[in-house]
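Worked example 3 (structure in, sequence out).
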């Protein structure tokens, strides 16, 4: 009898987890569908927008992934500062991946130097896992990501001096990287505020 009760409790727990994950995925999925309708509709009226299946799949994965990650991560902190920090960090990551994949940041998207930005994301993800989503640890993780982001054009300038920097030039690339780095710093600052709020409430 006791064994049956334990099994039943485990089954209920699994079912609740599945329902929670399903509910969390509904809104990001709907939002992703609505957003992807925009380029699909635009393609019917103009030749300026030309997307193929790969573009739609890639965009869908990015948008849905960012939305689902926000829904799951925002529940951990609970405070407005934590939720805003999560939103800023995910939006910055989404924009970084989108711009780098579509047109490239250093020159064209085919420039090997742009592969370093995936290293930036790897540093961020690993740091966040180490931080276990705790506010103060997340602040350190996003600050480390900002440093990695700002370091990319410096490394590119040293290792690949002959590379094409595109129409923006070296100065433009440094400015764009500074923009992304400042967004990551802003997210780190918000996580730091969330940590202070948590300490006060405790």
């Amino acid at each position: 009898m006791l064994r049956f009760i334990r099994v039943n409790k485990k089954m209920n727990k699994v079912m609740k987890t599945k329902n929670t994950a399903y509910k969390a995925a509904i809104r990001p999925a709907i939002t992703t569908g609505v957003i992807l309708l925009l380029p699909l509709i635009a393609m019917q009226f103009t030749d300026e927008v030309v997307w193929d299946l790969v573009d739609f799949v890639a965009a869908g994965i990015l948008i849905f992934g960012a939305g689902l990650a926000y829904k799951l991560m925002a529940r951990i902190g609970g405070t407005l500062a934590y939720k805003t920090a999560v939103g800023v960090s995910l939006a910055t990551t989404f924009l970084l991946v989108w711009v780098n994949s579509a047109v490239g940041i250093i020159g064209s998207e085919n420039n090997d130097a742009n592969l370093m930005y995936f290293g930036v994301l790897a540093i961020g993800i690993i740091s966040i896992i180490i931080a276990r989503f705790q506010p103060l640890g997340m602040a350190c993780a996003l600050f480390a990501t900002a440093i990695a982001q700002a370091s990319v054009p410096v490394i590119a300038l040293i290792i690949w001096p002959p590379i094409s920097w595109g129409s923006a030039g070296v100065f433009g690339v440094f400015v764009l990287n500074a923009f992304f780095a400042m967004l990551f710093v802003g997210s780190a600052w918000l996580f730091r505020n969330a940590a202070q709020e948590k300490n006060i409430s405790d």
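Notes: Confidence is low (pLDDT under 50) at residues 2-17. The radius of gyration is 21 Å.
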